[in-house]
Amino acid sequence: MYIDSHCHLDFPQLRERLPEILARMQENDVQQALCVSVNLDDWPGLMSLVDAQPRLWASVGVHPDYEDVAEPTVADLVAKARSHPRVVAIGETGLDYYRLEGNLEWQRERFRVHIRAARETGLPLIIHTRAASEDTLRIMAEEGAAEVGGVMHCFTESQAVADAAIAMNFMISLSGIVTFKSARDLHALAVNLPLDRLLIETDSPYLAPVPYRGKTNEPGFVRHVAEHIATLRGCTAQAIGDATTANFHRLFARTAPSV
User: Tens of pLDDT along the chain (259 residues)?
Assistant: First the structure.
């Protein structure tokens, strides 16, 4: 069994094909998926999708790339997170210095707001970092992100950054990038990560894994991420599926099956 820990099924190119996508999840033994929020204006639509599908979960947050959107407050994020039991995380949040330039203090302040909301709700964080690992780790430490932990999603940073995040109670999520032949550093990371700190994701509709590279990604393809990691680590795909499923339920406690 597999779980896609990060996707965007509310994006139009996926939402319009939802029945087909859910069927392909079932065919590939992908039992659940976490639909991750990128802005507050679209959040009600995301929640309407999740409400109708018991296999889906949601987060609430504003992506660091989004400039011209309503700025989140701690109070607003907390209220939304507490308003619905299917909201299991705060984010995605973080820093991205790759796409944006200039004075990005607004981005750093937005990140702090999300960490404070996570600490108030007790929910884990979903963190995006690109070309900004030093500031990301610094703000995580300054704001006490270790108190709630979370996941470094679609991870492409160094082993040292992974180790620092793990030390702050975070998991590392690998996407379809790990299946690319050119991602040699990520291959080594996939081997070295502690199995109890590993998650898998698609980040769909982006970054489809081999053999679907270049096509629209979807949660059913996450099994190819698991299979490639299994090949790298010399174990079975089931072992990766079982471990990452257990990790998902441990991190996102609201998703854990009732005993």
Answer: 999 999 999 999 999 999 999 999 999 999 999 999 999 999 999 999 999 999 999 999 999 999 989 899 999 999 999 999 999 999 999 999 998 778 899 999 999 999 999 999 999 999 999 999 999 999 999 999 999 999 999 999 999 999 999 999 999 999 999 999 999 999 999 999 999 999 999 999 999 999 999 999 999 999 999 999 999 999 999 999 999 999 999 999 999 986 4
Domain ranges of the chain: 60-148, 157-259
Kindly report the pTM of this predicted structure. Answer: 0.97
For residue 118 the two structure tokens come to 């996570």
Out of 3.30.1490.10, 3.40.50.2300, 3.20.20.140, 3.40.50.300, the CATH code matching 157-259 is 3.20.20.140
